[in-house]
Amino acid sequence: MGVQILWAVLLVAVAALAIAAPGLRSNRPDAWWCLIGYPLSVIRILATWRRLTTTIGLAVPRRPARLLVGSVVLKGDPLRPIPPRRSLPRLRQGGLEATARLHPGQVPDDFARFTEAIAHAWRVFAVRIVPVGRGHVRLVALAWDPLASPKVPRVTQYEPLRAVVGRREDGAVWAIDLHLVPHWFVVGATQSGKSTLIAALVKQLAPQRVALFGIDLKGGLELSLFEPRLSALAPDRSSAGRLLARLVAEVETRMVLCRKAGVRSNKDLPKQLRRPPIVIIVDEVAELYLMATREEKNEVGEISTNLLRIAQLGAALDAHLVIAGQRVGSDLGPGVTALRAQLGGRVCHRVNDPGTAEMALGDLSKEALVAAQQITTAERGVAVTIGEDGRWMRTRSIHVTPEEARRVAKKYAHLTPVWHEEEGTYL
Ligand SMILES: Nc1ncnc2c1ncn2[C@@H]1O[C@H](COP(=O)(O)OP(=O)(O)OP(=O)(O)O)[C@@H](O)[C@H]1O
């Protein structure tokens, strides 16, 4: 009798879950995944692992394909190849992960080539391969696209110079941390999401003790939204040249201060001497490097040198660069390539020309380059990022509207350090 009751309860529970599943999936995807999606996926993975790895060639035969029997060579497909040993899939937020042991002769890339086949077999949104030490790979399955509508927790306490700007594909928050990676390079075709990312960055930096500077050679159209919170905004090349020269002088002043105080960085200075961190945002960097006349050539040369100086000296002296552009190729001159080498943080949105993606990611990761070129027009705000650990990942910024950006800039306008255009010093 007791067993019958148990069966009845079990049946009712299964029936209730089956009825509630569609609603749960759309309203509470996390709960749906824990209760239904994950257990079903584990059963599917266990049931299909051998067949899947045999089909895609990751299972290896125990015996060689050729065998000498007496003086005769037998050729054929050996029976029951052995699949790579795999751990039980573990639950993780919005997905699952399992570790697999490589057979001798296999490398992580052998798995990476079949991620799409694995994702289809497991009925998940995507599968990523992460090498974990020698001889093992981690297969990370994402149940749904975590970048579809990224949300970030409300920040109440800001870590200095760290901005939570969106979500990463692995479900974690995406933060641009200027302490860890001092300079960033953001590229993307028109309407790909560069300004939205910059707005998300400024929104998070605005409440902090930071001097924000804008260089916007689209006539100040984009960055003027934040004008109340900017210490200075340069809307054309000659004013950009003057501002950069002043900022280099400021960096040099900091260097002298540090030398006199016997410390190695601005943040080690005594509090009364410490200057606020500087973040210089450049929108449409190509405009800084385009030249037609001899005078323009001199101006571009000076700007290029000053940007490089800030990039080289800035990290310890709390001067940071965020350089954005639509089309950035080596045809803009050696100054751009030299600057790129100093910008450790890279964000590549959808691009129209392979040269720009190559400029942003090509020197760091070929796989990242391929992933960036697959971003579609519909995926606004989606980017491939290389961050502090040198690994690439897909990310998406939160959607900060121009109105919100304007409101935040006004709200924190009182925190804007005052900058004298002539002397270039703070009050
Ligand atoms: N993370 C995002 N989520 C949702 N929508 C986004 C996101 N990022 C951008 N968009 C949408 O894409 C459109 C273009 O974004 P944005 O202006 O940031 O592109 P852009 O690369 O700066 O373009 P341009 O170079 O022409 O200024 C915006 O209207 C915005 O609504």
Which short descriptors sum up this protein?
427 residues; alpha/beta; Threonyl-tRNA Synthetase, Chain A, domain 2; Rossmann fold; 2 domains; ten-stranded mixed sheet; 12 helices; 16 strands; 20% strand; binds adenosine-5'-triphosphate; ATP-binding
Name the CATH architecture of the largest domain: 3-Layer(aba) Sandwich
Number of domain modules: 2
The profile of the biggest β sheet is: 10 strands, mixed
Tell me the fraction of residues in β-strands, as a range. 15-25%
**Total number of strands:** 16
**Class by alpha and beta content:** alpha/beta
Mean pLDDT: 87
Instruction: Report the helical percentage.
Output: 25-40%
State the fourth-level CATH superfamily of the largest domain: P-loop containing nucleotide triphosphate hydrolases
Pfam families: FtsK_SpoIIIE
Keywords: ATP-binding, Cell cycle, Cell division, Nucleotide-binding
Organism: Kitasatospora acidiphila
GO molecular function, one term: DNA binding
List the helices and strands and how they pair.
Layout: H1 2-27, H2 29-55, E1 66-69, E2 72-75, E3 90-92, E4 95-101, H3 108-112, H4 115-122, E5 126-131, E6 136-142, E7 162-168, E8 173-177, E9 184-187, H5 194-205, E10 211-216, E11 230-234, H6 237-261, E12 278-283, H7 286-289, H8 294-317, E13 319-325, H9 334-342, E14 345-348, H10 354-362, H11 366-373, E15 382-386, E16 392-397, H12 402-411
Parallel strand pairs: 9-13, 9-14, 10-11, 10-12, 12-13
Antiparallel strand pairs: 1-2, 3-4, 4-6, 5-6, 7-8, 7-16, 14-15, 15-16
